[in-house]
Amino acid sequence: MATTPDTTLGDAGEFGLISQLVEIFEGDEHVLVGPGDDAAVLRIRHGHVVVSTDLMVEGRHFRRDWASASDVGHRAAAQNLSDINAMGGTARHLTIGLAAPADLPLEWALDLARGFAEECASVGATVVGGDVTRADQVVIAVTVIGQCTQAPVLRSGARPGDVLALTGRQGWAAGGLAVLGRGFRSPRVLVEAYRRPEPPYAAGRQAAEAGASALIDVSDGLLAEAGHLAEASGVAIDVRASSFAVPEPLQAVGAALGADPMQFILAGGDDHALLATFPPDVAVPEGWQVIGEVLEGSGVTVDGSAYDGATGWTHF
Amino acid sequence: MATTPDTTLGDAGEFGLISQLVEIFEGDEHVLVGPGDDAAVLRIRHGHVVVSTDLMVEGRHFRRDWASASDVGHRAAAQNLSDINAMGGTARHLTIGLAAPADLPLEWALDLARGFAEECASVGATVVGGDVTRADQVVIAVTVIGQCTQAPVLRSGARPGDVLALTGRQGWAAGGLAVLGRGFRSPRVLVEAYRRPEPPYAAGRQAAEAGASALIDVSDGLLAEAGHLAEASGVAIDVRASSFAVPEPLQAVGAALGADPMQFILAGGDDHALLATFPPDVAVPEGWQVIGEVLEGSGVTVDGSAYDGATGWTHF
Lengths: 316, 316
Description:
The structure is a homodimer.
Chain A: H1 9-24, E1 31-33, E2 40-44, E3 47-57, H2 69-85, E4 90-100, H3 106-121, E5 126-134, E6 139-148, E7 163-167, H4 172-181, H5 188-195, H6 203-210, E8 214-218, H7 222-233, E9 236-239, H8 248-257, H9 261-267, E10 273-278, E11 289-295, E12 299-302
Helix pairs in contact in A: 2-3, 4-5, 4-8, 4-9
């Protein structure tokens, strides 16, 4: 995109901005993987240290009337822990920054921290630092540091002939968000899936050890993430819609809202499911479901055709 | 402080909040130093990895009409690099998160990133990740990861009989901020000191290698940081005002604004000077100036008496 001094972030879009930022930030020989994948990989003496960072903004990534502070803490941690999962790594240490208005109830901040710490503890990770400051709006900034015992699995390793596989719930959080957005609180199982995702934390390392060729977590929408993987790998991806059984609660929400429930599955994020590709000679591990294939070319199709709905979420 | 469900962040204050957060976040055997010092220290295999995080909020930590985007980037990096310096470590890798309104000029964000990367490069550190998202206000979230080749120097090691020493400019940035606050742009050397601090990046490791007993960087005000050091060490600190030569530009600003220029030195932050204590049998290294002494007791005095001005900056 050609830019002028008047170009705004909104004009450039998230990816336009990031692509330019990546050019500005140079790595060194200790950065095995810099910006552009789910996490950075650092060679610090004898280990592979994996680092990722994320921001959550009130009104954009969460609403205080849609989820408790503890839920928001769980979600903020899960989103970051999932990035380490998506490298095939093990999350170890996190920092959290909280910018908030001075009239934010202290209990809200403490419950946030408690939920955050609980989610971290569920994978054996700990919070090692943070910062708090005043702002007009609640902003939560998280950085996670993890380790890989084997080579990290990147987005760029998919090859034509590989199978595409998914593990974890997919579309549930999007369904929950949709009902909350209409003022409802049920089906409760979907609302809870949105409020407190349950990423398949053990599956990243499992996929890495099984021999996955590429790995990414579904934070921004299944087709959008498949697109990121396809682009990084220089391949095309075809998703088979028929491989998904639409869970009953999503069917109910689709009927109630007059929406195609497949939309939640194909475009939903926030469950932090994992999407992997496996070479043809690798057995897809237990718990993973084959949902498509890797082809020569570029872009993402559904059952061989372009998908005309939204594919995910944009940040600007 | 007794808290109720109605207690706000403003009521609790930054340190009230942090002290409660620290109780919520438990470390593990790999966290050599958790929250409460300048940075967290992690044992990751054979190295001491040092991590710190900070937030900067527009209108609170910077104003776009007082400093260029590049300056803000330099400051954001300097503030974090200084935290690693204050452990006696070497900064290696940083992440940066940017939350910003959609109408923020793209060039502002890119210049911010450039300034940030330049400051990092000046100490051999690199940016390894980041995140961008939309918010009502510009918020910059930085995490820095560093290494220590020797044991990190904490805030808690000062002992009675140690000398207190300072290195780096002190009070210049506060003087610059004061003139900007009155609508002036000179003395230029002070305004530039505020816009682009020059922390003594080599001095942290120098102090560690020389045998400093405690180390902290002056981000929030000299007396405030001396107070943090005294409290963490369980000692009293007396600062000798006569040890400071008031630089000519600070004298000029004091005269112009009708303020005591010593106030900038004693309560100013943002220069990211380093404050250390050295045991009596250790030679204070070159470039460090003895400015006081460590005593039995608690609290901070100036020339033996309580200081009745502001001692630093509070975040809520």
